[in-house]
Amino acid sequence: MRRTALLASAALLTALLPLTTAATASGADDPPPAPVDRFEGEVPFAGQPAEGIFTWGGDADDPPALQLADRADAPEGAKVLSGSYDISGYGGFTHDFAADRPAHDWSAHKGIRLWWDGQDNGKEIAFEIKDGGANGEASELWTTSFTDDFTGWKQIEIPFTDFTYRTDYQPVGGIDHVLGLTEMWGYAVTLPVGVKGRFAMDDVELYGRADQSLRASVTTDSAVYPVEEGGTAQVKVTVATTGNVPLDEPVTVTYATAGGTAEPGTDYTPVDGTLTFPAGTASGTTHTVEVPTLRDKAAEPAETVPLKLTVTGAKAPAEIPQAVIDAHGLPYLDSRLPVRKRVADLLSRMSLEEKAGQMTQAERAALTSQGDIAAYGLGSLLSGGGSTPTPNTPEAWAKMVDSFQLRTRATRFQIPLIYGVDAVHGHNNLAGATIMPHNIGIGATRDPRLAEQTGEVTASEVRATGVPWDFAPCLCVSRDERWGRSYESFGEDPALVESMETIIQGLQGRANGKDLSRDDKVLATAKHFVGDGGTEYGSSTTGSYTIDQGVTKVTRQQLEAVHLAPYRTAVDRGIGSVMPSYSSLDVLGDGRGPVKMHARADMINGVLKGRMGFDGFVISDWAAIDQLPGDYASDVRTSVGAGLDMIMVPYAYKDFLTTLTDEVKAGRISERRIDDAVSRILTQKFRLGLFEHPYADTSGAARIGSPAHRAVARRAAAESQVLLKNAHGVLPLKKDQKVYVAGSNADDLGNQTGGWTITWQGASGTHTQGTTVLQGMRKAAPDATITYSKDASAPLDGYDVGVVVVGETPYAEGVGDVGNGNDLELSAADKAAVDRVCGAMRCAVLIVSGRPQLIGDRLGGIDALVASWLPGTEGDGVADVLYGRRPFTGQLPVTWPRSQDQLPINVGDASYDPQFPYGWGLTTLTGVPQGGTATLKALARAAAAAERTGSARAGRAIVTRARLIVQRKAGSAMTEAFAGPFADADHLLLTGRYAAAVAKLTEAYRAA
């Protein structure tokens, strides 16, 4: 049935009705419908920034196939949008308006409607609209749905009042959580999952007239108003309109204090009355209601005084505002008492439900409403990778965290939240923050003091945004470079990882926790306990991952020596929290087989908390308990019983709380275990000073991204560069040379910073502030001729030297696993750039990557080769060593393989024949030591003396001198006889056995 026929029938019906009835039926005062999509070809299939319709989905086979199809029964016009789908994960399509033109204003209309060709499959069709922000891919998403429980065409009308803010996913992380309707960027349709089907839709349009109750709203400046006992809460009530136009009709707000936990007349003076905003009142007009509280002499928990508002003529506030009389006089609030006494006092007052809340951590964007923080007594929130406020500024971060913290004031004991982020190489979720090299680059520096300084910078920038907790450092010992998390490791040698754990003091301060309350320190997290770096290739059962979250098979001795060793050091350094791994541990010979780490009570309770004496708290990984076998109750029971104190349940916080309390009440989880968990959490909250200062201290915000902080990152980038080959003295460059620069990573800040930067996976391009390698080179040699051609297509004649910067594009976790769409080869374009430049001139090749890349087939044609790792935002640091402002001093933190077939290959292996051994790193120091076997003999004696006297500094210097002598002789001609003892020497150095290290280097010298 065509829409024209419907309209004709409606016109005939109207003619038969009385005049007043006809006017009402046709909506005479309504504006005419405003078309959004007619699907006659006026909108192309295209993506941002152009206007267009495009598909999306979780996997390659998820997006639907779309077409503009001729249909004789089209409700409007001749064509409809139709398609087929077979979606396993998620998928749908979007119409985005052009980003380079103004957004659309839908505020004059009541809602949006469309024609849908029903298949009667009983499935929900999600329909969302895009409000505010910069464009359709950076706007707030508001969603509703309808059920396909009919056959044939049906017009679906959706009033704007039906749309709710999406809490599970927002591309921008939230703008104002208000459906403004004046800046609309389009709509999206999410199609059903798990059913193969087809669909058709037509004529999307705006309909009806928006009444004032939709266009006008009453708000309060807060939902919670904490006051000290005897103080007066001031509730500001504001009327606002879409488009900021004056009120058409009067708005009245009747208010009265009622309910809550405070006693009227005893704890506060009741108030009531009416506020009137007459017609013509300007949008933004505010009146204030005062709620006086009364003073008594009793020590009390916090008490609430709700102020109920009844609104006529406008939309009422989403929440009832409430004044809160702060808790006072209770021992746990006395900062003079020892922490253990404060914890004991508070714990003794808490209900089971309140304790369960403290053990619960939710993703901040997953909150149904901020009121859930108090309603469920949540103990913690986090920002996952890319979960940021809008705008993504330090001020917005602090305001966001403070808004969450304010909600805790409406709970009985006003226990503050502990907010956590993955600041794994700087405050990497924050645009403009100082981004350090990833851990693999820090391991390459072999500089524990520098590692500590990077932690200091990170802590300072994180805490200045109101965040007191960092899910770092990663203490994995990476044993297979096919792992997508390789770059999160300091290296393949547990001794190297242990030496870099000075970063914990940079983050937390002194090991006794006395510095945690400072405005430049955060609680650190050792992760991922234990063995995540040892997972076996092909053992992962998570989606398409090949190694991440897989199984680590080790003997008890290997477990202790390799994977547990860094955690002993972390506990000694006072680490405040520990996060178990997603992976499974299979200890050979114990008869248990692979067991998920989140279920290993023997390791968490037994080894970590028991034998090692860890007194912090254990936090689960993201939704990790869902991977345990059994039903949800079993997951909760097993993980808490295994020793997990706080559970990261990003989207399932309500289910978790209910299940946890039910399990305790049923006696399947002991109250003693709950009390232990909550005591550990509260201890760290007290140490952090959150009870005294729950809100952000932004006094250090000016240091975020400051020159002083970037100087630390620049030095880290410089020291992380590992010079693998340097024939003909190509490096350092001279400032008067004509330099030809090429390669995909020479001028790409996103590739240079890698994963876990602004978003979880990271992205190519410019998404934060920093300096690329190319920009750094131009700053280092401002008068030099430096030509850049990404693909090396520009003419190659007339240059003294070429610099080709190649490598990986960003990834994180199992998404980056080799075999999951990734390998260790350079891209075809990068190989071509290397071949073109190095075939035409002397060249240096820089590999910007999170792990070694296979370069052996081109090594002979490359004069200088540099492992640049992922140096962060400060490309100036890379330029510093290229131009000799600093010497190359970095050493390989992992073995550089000849081929992928050698993997895994690590220092200490019985068979060890790499391209470059662990610990290798040439230098451009001007005074490179010389000598031979006689010199090495003398160094061996000096090393033994340094070892006897405990002179670590002298011992390291002696071994370094011996290493440089050996490297000079070896050149780049590596043999198995040379590589093994050379790599062993670096491990011995890190464990303080200087004489043995020189002996191994002497053995390598003889084999060279």
UniProtKB/TrEMBL annotation:
The keyword Transmembrane does not apply. SMART domains: Calx_beta. Its EC number is 3.2.1.21. GO terms for molecular function: hydrolase activity. Residues 1-25 form the signal peptide. Residues 205-310 form the Calx-beta domain. It is an enzyme of class 3 (hydrolase). SUPFAM superfamilies: (Trans)glycosidases (SSF51445), Beta-D-glucan exohydrolase, C-terminal domain (SSF52279), CalX-like (SSF141072), Galactose-binding domain-like (SSF49785). Keywords: Calcium, Glycosidase, Hydrolase, Repeat, Signal. It catalyses: Hydrolysis of terminal, non-reducing beta-D-glucosyl residues with release of beta-D-glucose. Belongs to the glycosyl hydrolase 3 family. This is beta-glucosidase. It comes from Streptomyces caeni. The lineage of its organism: Bacteria, Bacillati, Actinomycetota, Actinomycetes, Kitasatosporales.
